TrEMBL record:
Transmembrane segments: 48-70, 77-97, 279-298
A molecular-function term among this protein's GO annotations: ABC-type vitamin B12 transporter activity
Function text: Converts cobyric acid to cobinamide by the addition of aminopropanol on the F carboxylic group.
Name of the protein described by the UniProt record: Probable cobalamin biosynthesis protein CobD
Length: 299
C-alpha cells in the first residue's frame, strides 16, 4: 500500500472513530485563535485583510509541510501517519452529520430544543423557525459542509498526494485555513475580511460544483444538476448554492433561509423522513469522495 493510501486510510479511520478531536487539542481551533487576533479594527483594513488572507494560510500550510517532511525523514511510514493525522484535522463531516440528525429528530418532538441546537449548524435567527424550516437548515448545512468541510481539503490532498505527501497535507491545511478565515472574517461589516471572503470564493468554486456532482451521482439522479442550475444562484454565496440546490432537487423539497433565498419554491419544506434521507445522501457522497481520493492517491 502506498504511503498516500496509508495516510488516507488513517484519516478515514479517525473520522469514523472520533469525528473531531477535542477542541483543546484541535489545530483548527489553535488557528482560529490566531485569526481572532487579526479580527480587529485596522487603520487600513483592506490592506491588512489582504496580508492576513495571504500570510496566515501560508503559515499554517508551511508548518504542516515541515512537520510531515520531518516525520518522513524518520521513516516513510511515520510521515504517512503524520500526513493522515493532519488530513483528518483538516477535514470534517461526521460531527456535522451527527448534529444534523439530532436537530432533525428534535424538530419532530421538541422544536424549542431544535431551535437551540440548529444554531450549531446554521448562522440564522432560529427564534421563529418552523419545524420544517429547522429541518431545511439542517439539510442545507449538511450539503454545504460536504463541500467546505470535506471535498475541498480532501481534493487538494488527493491531487498532490502522488507528487509529495508533505505538500498534499500542506495543501489540505491551506484550504482549511482559507475556509476558517472566511467563516470568521468574511462578513460585509468586516472590511478586513473582504480578501478572505474573495479568496474562499475562488478556492471553493470547483469543490462546490464537484460536491453537487457527487450528490447527484450517489442519488442516481444526474438530472438533478440540471434543475439545480436554475436555483444555485439564489443564495448570496457564488458556491454554496450548488450542493444545496442539488440536494433540494434530489429530495424534491424546498430549502429556504427565510428572507434570504428559496430553492425549489414549488415544493414543501422537508419532512423528517426527507431530511433524514438528505443527510444519508450527504454521507454517501462523502464516502464516494473518500473513494475517489483513494483512486487519485493510488495513481
Amino acid at each position: 500500500m502506498s504511503d498516500a493510501l496509508v495516510a488516507l486510510a488513517l484519516a478515514v479511520g479517525l473520522e469514523l472513530a472520533m469525528g473531531e478531536p477535542p477542541t483543546t487539542a484541535h489545530p483548527v481551533a489553535w488557528f482560529g485563535r490566531l485569526v481572532g487576533r487579526a479580527d480587529r479594527a485596522w487603520s487600513r483594513p483592506r490592506t491588512a485583510g489582504l496580508a492576513v488572507a495571504i500570510a496566515l494560510p501560508v503559515l499554517a500550510a508551511g508548518v504542516v509541510v515541515g512537520a510531515v517532511a520531518l516525520a518522513g525523514g524518520v521513516h516513510h511510514l511515520v510521515g504517512a501517519l503524520a500526513a493522515g493525522t493532519l488530513l483528518f484535522v483538516s477535514t470534517s463531516l461526521r460531527m456535522l452529520l451527527d448534529v444534523a440528525r439530532t436537530v432533525i429528530a428534535e424538530s419532530e418532538h421538541d422544536p424549542v430544543r431544535a431551535r437551540e441546537s440548529v444554531r450549531a449548524l446554521a448562522g440564522r435567527d432560529a427564534t421563529d423557525l418552523s419545524a420544517g424550516e429547522i429541518r431545511s437548515a439542517a439539510v442545507e448545512s449538511a450539503a454545504e459542509n460536504l463541500a467546505d468541510g470535506l471535498v475541498a481539503p480532501l481534493g487538494a490532498f488527493a491531487v498532490l498526494a502522488p507528487v509529495s505527501l508533505s505538500l498534499a497535507a500542506g495543501a489540505a491545511t491551506w484550504v482549511k485555513a482559507v475556509n476558517t478565515l472566511d467563516s470568521m472574517l468574511g462578513y460585509p461589516e468586516k472590511p478586513h475580511g473582504t480578501a478572505s471572503a474573495r479568496l474562499d470564493d475562488a478556492v471553493m468554486w470547483l469543490p462546490a460544483r464537484a460536491s453537487a456532482l457527487l450528490l447527484a451521482l450517489v442519488s442516481g439522479r444526474p438530472y438533478a444538476l440540471v434543475r439545480a442550475a436554475e436555483w444555485a444562484r439564489a443564495p448570496p454565496s457564488p458556491n454554496s448554492g450548488w450542493p444545496m440546490a442539488t440536494l433540494s432537487s434530489v429530495l424534491d423539497v424546498r430549502l429556504e433561509k427565510p428572507g434570504v433565498y428559496v430553492l425549489n419554491s414549488s415544493r414543501g419544506l422537508p419532512t423528517v423522513a426527507e431530511a433524514r434521507r438528505g443527510v444519508r445522501t450527504v454521507a454517501l457522497a462523502g464516502a464516494l469522495a473518500y473513494l475517489l481520493a483513494g483512486v487519485f492517491a493510488w495513481s
